[in-house]
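Deliverable D5.2: sample structural annotation.
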Amino acid sequence: MAKIFVEAFGCSASFADSEMISGLILNGGHTLVEDSSDSDLNIVVTCSVKDATANKMIHRIKSLKSKPLVVAGCLPKAEKETVEKFTENASLLGPNSLGKTLQVIDSTLSGQKQIALEDSDLSKVGLPKVRLNPVVGIVEIASGCMSECTFCQTKLSKGDLSSYRLGDIVRQVKTEINDGCKEVWLTSTDNGCYGFDIGTDLPSLVNAVAEIPEEFMVRVGMMNPMYMPRIKEELLKSFDIDKVFKFLHIPVQSGSDKVLNDMKRGHTVGTYREIVNKAKQRFGDFTISTDVIVGFPSETEEDFQKTVDLLDETRPDVVNLSRYSARPGTEAAEWEQIDVAEVKRRSKIIFDQINKISLENNQKWIGWTGKVLFDEKTDEGIKGRNFAYKPIFVQDGVDIGQSHTVKITDVTVNTLLGKIAS
């Protein structure tokens, strides 16, 4: 039996995949090691969403290929030739091919390269797993999406929407809670369209999960704005439930309807603006996270300014900022690109803007006192989250999985700082 090292990059779904791969490895009789220097075989679960990310993946693949290697996740599915250019002997495992994990490992250990990129019929609900964080259960609710964005490789990697059955997800969440998790993340490529293929929807799922009687919190993962008109009223009712973090990740990408149309995003700026306003009006303190791409090929200076204006107007708490990079196989990669220096200039403007907005948003929390669930170990210490999923650090000795009453005394751009009040 082999000693295997597993690491993951990218989104929460990628980390969930790595947890299931690790669970299958243990079930198959192998052991897991925490350092690649101790392993007989390495597995890297990759992400390919951006150029910079893909380059990081290539660098990591090159550093791990001195031993038998399995490259898993989105990169081998979307860019098989790129992976093989840098490691021709590595086996490849697609994001929807986890059912082949042990077969690929055994083959690779015996010196035989195996390519398993076709989707298997194995649901990702109910698989054994080894959690990266003992108090956070990452539950994938679907694979693939219904979008056709011109900049995105995810559709190439994960295909069309395939939602997992509501009852199966609820059972999986119960397992997470019974295993000691205090927080559950409902994650997928796009939570907004969950269930449209099987006659249900996201609010129904959130309500069903929240009915589980134990004490835990639910984080609803990223959803594209294009599906919000269909579910927004019921979803906002779901957020009334105390167990659901008042947190919404809704990527607008641009403040220009023209650019959104060119991106084939399927929503308008008005769709995003409406859901943000409704959430804030209904709940007051509500964390909005969004994504913005600057330098999309058709983005003019006027389009860019509309994005700046939208951020000033809606003041999201978190903005995941990306400089546009052409991804192989996508429609926009074929278009004339904007000069790199100009993209950097626009990126710097928005970077400074979002830091200012984030700091001002955080300063409003100074003096707040309330319950915080401590859910993550970081280099700075143990981090917690309040009802609005705001990240909170305290100096006092707390353990992961505990809840304490905390008073916020200071803030930074990215976090709230507090002290135990009880």
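Annotation notes: The mean pLDDT is 88. The radius of gyration is 21 Å.
The annotation will be released with the project's public dataset once the embargo ends.
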